[in-house]
Amino acid sequence: MKKLIIGIGGITNGGKSTLARSLHEHIANSYIIAQDTFFKDDSFVAVDSRGFKQYDVLDALNMDKMMNKIQTWQKDPVSFLASHGLRAQSPRGLETLKDVYVLIIEGFLIYNYRPFNEIIDKKYFLHIPYDICKARRCSRTYNPPDPSGYFDGHVWPMYLKNRKEMEDTVTDIVYLDGTQSKHQLFSTVYKQIEMEMQRLTGND
Ligand SMILES: Nc1ncnc2c1ncn2[C@@H]1O[C@H](COP(=O)(O)OP(=O)(O)O)[C@@H](O)[C@H]1O
Ligand SMILES: O=C(O)c1ccc[n+]([C@@H]2O[C@H](COP(=O)([O-])O)[C@@H](O)[C@H]2O)c1
Fold first, then answer.
1. Which of 26, 62, 89, 111 lies most in the core, judged by the most C-beta atoms within 10 Å?
2. Which domains does the chain have, with CATH numbers?
3. What is the ipTM of this complex?
4. In a mutational test of the pocket of ligand 1, which residue from 8, 16, 17, 18 has the highest number of ligand atoms less than 8 Å from its CB?
């Protein structure tokens, strides 16, 4: 059995969940672990002097818990899928790839957490410009909702800081232009993953 771990990182509202979901739908025996399901309870998230909750930092996330879940998958993907109500299956037409189990790790701060950089085989990072990001963010409602001024006061400055830190420490990232169509992004990444799966199964 072969295992492949794909990272779909990037800016908030860059299209990470959308891309991760499309990949999952087209790759048999794949599973998504999403970072935004690991936010700490509101009461444990720090607040700055302006009253802004500091959500866009690793401290706001239960990264140990996320890592534990990933390790459970790594130990035994078949049992992991079964325990999440999924049965390992043969992909359509690609019999030789059936022994590849694919984990998709999706999130806005995955490459700022060092242990992930050692285990993610293919690292993708979606980016979009400031104005598109702000527009997409403003049309979405988080829980809790963004207070007024949160994007410019917290989200964007933290994005710039986290991105710089990532660029200073991680070198093997493939950058994706999140203004491309959903289909184009899916098709680019899917082709590369398919090639990687073929390489893993010695079928290239
Ligand atoms: N390639 C794209 N082009 C235009 N809009 C997109 C694209 N990908 C995602 N979106 C839209 O942007 C918003 C955020 O997408 P989402 O996948 O949830 O982003 P993220 O997970 O990075 O926060 C959604 O309204 C989604 O439909
Ligand atoms: O999901 C949550 O519990 C949550 C609560 C408050 C804020 N968030 C925001 O979620 C953002 C990261 O998720 P995403 O999907 O926008 O990349 C980050 O910018 C946070 O400000 C997320």
1. 111
2. 2-178 (3.40.50.300)
3. 0.99
4. 18
